[in-house]
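Lab notes, practical 5.
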Amino acid sequence: MIKKIVEFCGLMLLALMLISCGKKEITVETQPRTEKTGNVQMLRTEWSSTETGYYRLYNHTEDGVNLCYVDFTTGQNSFVCNQPACQHAEKSCNSFFKGRSHGILFSNMEHLYFLKYTDLREDPMKLYRMNLDGSDHKLIHTFRKDELFVMDPVYPAFDGQYIYFIITSWDDETMQNIPKLLQINVDTGKTTALLICNQNIGTEEGQQPYIVDPYLIGAHERTLYLTVSYLKETSDLTGIAGADENAQNMLTSLLALDLNTGKIEVQDTWKNADRRFLVQDDQMYYVDLIEKSLKACHIKTGETRVISSNLKVRNTDETILRSIYDGKCIVDIFNPEQQRYFRYAVDLQTGEISALSLEYSEDDETYYVHIKLEMADSFIVIYDQKEEAHHVLHKDGTLEEVIESEPQYARIKKEDYWNNIPNYDPIATLEDAFSA
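Output from the prediction step:
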C-alpha cells in the first residue's frame, strides 16, 4: 500500500514538474467502461432532479435524515414513503437514513444514489443505492473514518457508472492529510485512487513543493479537469503561515485527466492571485485583471477570445464568477464606494451585460436570489428567509416544535429570472408534508 502511495505521489509531482516543459503526459489506471458509462458531468447541487420534480434531504428526526420529493405535477412536497401513518423515523421507512447528516443525491434514471457524510469523524461517509421510489436501500460502500469529503467549492462528477470526487485521508507515514481523487463504481463500490497528492511543508532543498488541496472543477465528454496550487520555490516556505505570506508566489495548474486512456496533461499554469475562473464543458472562463475583460479559453487548444471588455472590475479579489446557466455567466463585482457587491449576467456569445436585481432581506442584510437547481425552463431558487415552526421527532416519539430561520424555495421561469421579474411560485414546505 505504501508503495502505491509513493508511486501516485510521484505521478502527481511529475505532472507539476512538466509545467515548464510543455504539454507532456503521464498515465494512471482507471476502471473500465460499462454499458452504463456515458459522458462525465459535474453535479451542480446536492439535490437530484427529474423531468417533473426533484429529490432533496430533510432533517426530520434527531438521529436521522429523510429523503423527500417535490412533485411539480401535484404540487406536493412529501417524504418518499408509501406506508400509512408512518413516522418516517425507522429503518422500515423508505425515506429514513439513520444518522443526522448531510449528503448529495444523484441519479442515472435507473437508480437514485445518496452520498452521505457528516462533520464527525466517528460517523464515516457512506454511499447508498436505491430505486427511484426510495425502496430497496443498499449500502454500496463505507469509507474509512479518516476519509473526509472535500466539496468546497464544487461537487462531484458522475458518468452513470462512476462517481468522482476528492477526499482527504490521514497518512501515518507522513503524518499529514493526503488529498485523493477517487473513482467509485456506484453499483459494486469498487474504489480506485486516480491521484494521490502529498502535501509536504518541508523547506530543505530537494523536497517537493507545498501543495494546496487539488480541486475537481469541471468535466467534458470523458475528461475531468482539476486544479492544483503550489509554491514553485520551496525555499520560500517556512511553514503553513508561509503559504499565506507567499500567496503572490503561489501558482495554479490546470490538469486534464482523460478517463478513456488515463492520460493526464498539464493544460495551463497561471499565478494564483491573477485569475478567478469557471470551467464549463471544454472552456475556461476568467477575468483578465489588466484588460478588465471576461475571456474564454479553449482548454485543449489554448485559443482565447474576449467575451466582454466592459466589466468594471478593480481586482480579482473583488470579482466572483458565480456560475453559468443558459449561456450566461453570473458575475459579482464589488463596488467600494457603496461597499457592496452588484450582480450581473454576461451573455457568453454576445458579451452583453445585464444587471440582476432580484433580492431579499434578512436581519438588515440584503441577499441576491440564489439559484439552487436548474430545470428545463425554470430555476428552483431561494427567494426569502423566514422564521417558522419546525418539528423534530425525538426517539421517544414526541414532537418538539422549534422556531428556526428557514430558506424559502420557489420555482421561477428562466425568462423572469433573467429579466428581474419576481414571479415566484412558492414550493410547499416539508412541514406541510409531515402534517398531511
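Observations recorded by the TA: The first strand starts at residue 25 and ends at 27. Confidence is low (pLDDT under 50) at residues 1-24, 199-208, 234-245.
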